[in-house]
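To whoever is on call:

I kicked off a structure prediction for a single chain this morning and the downstream step that reads the tokens threw a length-mismatch warning. I double-checked the sequence; it's 76 residues and nothing unusual in it as far as I can see. Pasting both halves so you can look.
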Amino acid sequence: MKDVKVLGSGCANCKATQKLVEEVAKARGVEIQLEKVEKIQEIMAYGIMSTPGVVIDGKVVHAGGMPSRSKVETWF
């Protein structure tokens, strides 16, 4: 199981990124534990200044703007 965090304040891109991550993981048959992080202090602790951001197993894999589906697929 992968620990996935979507970092963002709740904007449309953040919500769309969360949905995309869930869809791709399900399509690939990968179990994830998804957490939405909205507190600015927690987001900044990852060094992310532009959201949405995605963290998988403690590693920042994306920051700023919505990732493409093909990019998300490479994570799983």
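Update from on-call: the warning came from a stale cache, not from the record. Cleared it. Sanity check on the structure: The chain has a mean pLDDT of 95.
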